[in-house]
Each structure stands twice: as structure tokens, then as C-alpha cells.
TrEMBL record:
This protein's name: Phage baseplate assembly protein V
Pfam families tied to this protein: Phage_base_V (PF04717)
NCBIfam families linked to this entry: phage_P2_V
Segments forming domain Gp5/Type VI secretion system Vgr protein OB-fold: 40-107
Annotated transmembrane regions: none
Coiled coil (residue ranges): none
Organism per entry: Vibrio spartinae
Amino acid sequence: MRQAIEGLVREMLTPYLERIETLSHELEDLRRRNRSLIRLGQVAAIHENGYLIKVKHGDLTTPFIRWFASSAGETRDYRCPSIGEQTLVLNYGAGDNGSQTVALTGLFSDNFPSPSGDPNEILRVYPDGSRINYHAQNHVLTVDIKGDVHINVDKSAHIVAGDVATVDAKSIALNGGSPCVTTAHICHFTGNPHGDGSSTVTAGK
């Protein structure tokens, strides 16, 4: 009699036990997916097209995925992440193969620490050491470029300085014209320096 009752109970409970086991597997799968939703990693590779990267997080590496840019509409910015740059991997599809993940870059790390600790500075440092720095408290913009600078303007260009404008270079060429004469030049007729010079514009000889 007891065995019959136990058999009947097992038969009645079997669907519930199977359902509990299924729910347990589903719950574990959800936990695993949740753990992979946001992962901290480092850029491991850059695609040859220049706009996809692989990110290594733990023992895993994503396929080539996109990264966040500050602007990606009609106004667009481009700055390819660096190998070793720290990034957050956002798995918005909660999948296993990484095909529905994107990388959120721009996290300082031991590989690439912050270039400044001054909250008044707005600073960009380039790989060759060039820097563009605006200090909000001092109201000073400093541009330090290690190479050449090219500025092309399709129409007019206006530069207005409220105080002194200083240009200091080994040579200055304006429109490919002839050299300018200043009061530092010697007059061929008198043998003396030119006496009539501008009171607002000065230039070296």
C-alpha cells in the first residue's frame, strides 16, 4: 500500500519537478547572461577598416565590434581607440557570441592615465605629444603642435585681437609677395635706417 501511494505521489509530482528543473536551468542561464551584459576589458585589436575593434575581457575576446563616438550623425567625430585602452563592453543583445555588443571607450587606466588633474583644464593630448589645452579659470588657450599646421578657409578669415597680436617665426611669407621694408632696413640713398615706419605694425628685418 505504501509503495502504491509513493508511486502515485511521484507520478503526480513528476511534471512539477521537471518544471522546477527547467526553471532552474533558465534561471542559471539568465544569471550567466546578466553577468555578461557589462564587462570591463581592453582593446585587443583594430580592424583594417579603422572603425571596428576587438575587446578582451577576462578569458574571452569579442569579435570585431563598434565603439561609441562622441558624435555620429550629420556632425561626426572620429578617434580610433588605442590598443590596450580600457573599455566597457555592453552586450545589449545578451547573446553568447558577442555579435550584439558595442564598446564604450574613454576610461583612464594604468596604460593610459589622465593627462591632467586640474578640473579647470580642457585638454587633448595626441600620440606624438601635441596638445590642445584650454584653461577655463585663466582663460588661456594653448596649442602645442609637434608638426605642421594647415588652416584652409573657403571664404574670408577674420582674426581680431583685443590687445597685441604677435607672430614670431624664422620667416613670414604673405601671398608670396616681396619682402617688407621696416625701420630696421637701411635706405640705399641716405645710408640710414628708414625713418617712416608703422606705429601699429612691427616686423623684424
